[in-house]
# Entry
Amino acid sequence: MKRKENHGVAFLAFRYLRGRGKRLISPNHYLTLAGITLGVIALLCVSSVMNGFRQDIGLRIAGTQSEIKISSGGGKPLVDYEEMAAQLRQKGFACSPVIRNELLIKYGSAALPTISFGIDPQYHASVSPALGPLKDAMPGIRQGILSGEISEAALNNNGIILSTGLAISLGANLGDVVNIISPRMSIPTAFGMIPRVMGMRVIAISESAMPDYQMSYSYISLDNARFFSGHQGIDQLDLRTDDFVKSEKYARQLQSEYPLLKVEPWSRFDASLYSAIRFEKFLMFVIMLLMYVIASFNLTGNMLRSIAQKKRELGLLKSIGFSDHDLRQLFLRQSLILSSTGIILGLVVASLLLIIQANTGLIKLGVSDANPITLPVKMMASDFIIVILVSYALTLLSVMLPLKRLKEVDPIALIRQTT
# Structure
């Protein structure tokens, strides 16, 4: 049989929240409301900032390298890659062949290790913004050619492009000749095996948004890279998509199309860093969630105090026909109204703060005075949904104990106490 709704429950729920006088909410609930609001703000801001950091790191990594990498997976070079590259370009991907070598670069008395990429400048500028015009991918992420010009003729004529950190550490400028040395002894002579060595002229300096990459990356022609690698193929195909956000989805699709090859999205290029950011987001969310749990305890205390103070009224309500279910609904609605108000306030305030930061970059991270980094934020609908669901779940859990206390209300005993 369907239970008949008691319309007085909703009225009493609002009445108990207001307390005496014409206040919108009783002062007893201010602290609870503030705790819920601040908890929602903290959860959303932390999640959005960590999303921003993830996107920031992704743009830095993909901006210096690529969004997707296709290789043999077993360390073997790709030989017949031209047909596959043409197919990928027809599908809308920017595609560039790459040979990766770990070499030694020497200029004057300075000698440093370098990760050297053999590239085709005709294609690679469309894949890696680090070799394109200098511009901001987003606030705080500056990438591109800082000085010099890239041309296929200059690169093929023993030219080399240095990243800014590497050029500064070497003390090399445009036009300087640096020596590139392979650490592997691969050239036989009468005196034994000697390393491959080539003198190259600096034709451009590239700005990268990743400090680690800036200290070690350099770019040479494919033919010169083959001289150091010792094979005629390539190590990988670097791809750029039409939508950075969908790059991991595209990588999964390409892996199914080319099952014998290894397809990696940008998140696997520096897997330890990416995993650390994801774990940090989860950890920070849990820590901020504890703050909301404390606010929920305050809600529990308020409900218990309200039941204790209004025992006589509750007994009277029972005597005039209110059931235990009606009383439970009374305090449950009171809790839901209070938590809903706090959640809505938290959503509005958090959204305003995040929109202001995203549009103005008001908060800067003091990494360096010369190039301050804007605190990145990225709002995601999934985070808002999770925060709302978690908030209501904690609200329901926090009122379980007060609702059990309602069973202790005995109208006959309370009426006897008043006579």
Observations:
- The mean pLDDT is 81.
